[in-house]
Amino acid sequence: MKATDLLEVRDAGLYCPPGGFWIDPVQPVDRALVTHGHGDHCRPGSAHLMATAETIAIAQTRYGADAFAATQVAEPGEVMRIGDVDVHFAPAGHVLGSAQIVVEAGGARAVVSGDYKRAADPTCAGFEPVACDLFVTEATFGLPVFRHPPVQDELDKLFASIAAFPERCHVLGVYALGKAQRIMAELRARGYDRPVWIHGALSKLTELYGELGVDLGPVRQVMAADKAELAGEIVLAPPSAIQDRWARRLPDALPVGVSGWMQVRARARQRRVELPLIVSDHCDWDALCATIREVGAETVWVTHGAEEALVHWCREQGLEADPLAIAGRGDED
Fold first, then answer.
1. Can you give the residue ranges of every domain in the chain?
2. pTM > 0.90: yes or no
3. CATH of 3-145+282-323, one of 3.60.15.10, 3.40.50.300, 3.10.450.50, 3.40.50.720
């Protein structure tokens, strides 16, 4: 069997014919194997959901306990027989519970990486490269211009701004799942022991991280604070909220963008960000290329982002490569 016989693209997304299941389907299906809990990869309504325990908990927190008729936990490294293929989940390093899905049959192996990053993250297991014949990779930042600096360098900018403007409230625009909790954990690792204030939209998933064993330190909701109490404090909110009426309750708010997209100045200006911090939960260009080399796949399928540039690079390396252009993939906010 060829690795390309293991997967094919259909209207509902990526399908495994010999296994009879879908991976990160874009619409409800009978059996969905899901890489992680972001809404563009994990959607409610499928009859059967297989994912890591953390991803199942995230999905049920976001969509409700009855969002799926049945769920099955995939333990990391456990090999499961589904139809005519063997399947196991390997860490992807994207957010808590994120995984690559490894499919094998007839001596061929395909890996669907989902979203992934190679930078260290204190809130989730790091990416584990899996040798394979077919590698399905994202390309969110799949252009050579994207090279992400170390997160500690970006936090230095934040602390320098707080020192320069101690009377201002620094409000960080972060995704509700993954980015918010990673920033909290990175702040704690730097010795920041003050409460981190959060928008209510971040509370459920932040509480879930705590329940799942991720220590984020003292966290408080903005709605419980007096305006004066927030002067000089760090507040986390969804990116859309930092320019919303909600932000008016904050004392002299300084908008901070926290995203790999902050490398694009036009994006920062568009969101009226005063302090752009380049912190991403995806690979930059160098990490994408290094990962493709490391897994050793002869065939690479590219989706979600600047597909053509990465496909071109792969072909220059002598690899078979094609864009997938799966509908429904996008930013987490």
1. 3-145+282-323, 151-277
2. yes
3. 3.60.15.10
| DSSP-assigned letters across all residues of 244-312 | SGGGGGSTT-EEEEESGGGGSHHHHHHTT-SEEE---SS--HHHHHHHHHHHT-SEEEEEEESHHHHHH
Radius of gyration for the chain, computed over Cα atoms and rounded to the nearest angstrom: 20
Give, for all 333 residues of the chain, the pLDDT tens digit: 899 999 999 999 999 999 999 999 999 999 999 999 999 999 999 999 999 999 999 999 999 999 999 999 999 889 999 999 999 999 999 999 999 999 999 999 999 999 999 999 999 999 999 999 999 999 999 999 999 999 999 999 999 999 999 999 999 999 999 999 999 999 999 999 999 999 999 999 999 999 999 999 999 999 878 888 899 999 999 999 988 888 888 989 999 999 999 999 898 888 889 999 999 999 999 999 999 999 999 999 999 888 999 999 999 999 999 999 765 555 554
Phi, psi angles (nearest 5°) of residue 54:
-65, -40
C-alpha 279/C-alpha 324 separation (Å) is 26
Look up tokens 């994120």; give the residue.
98
* Top CATH class, 151-277: alpha beta
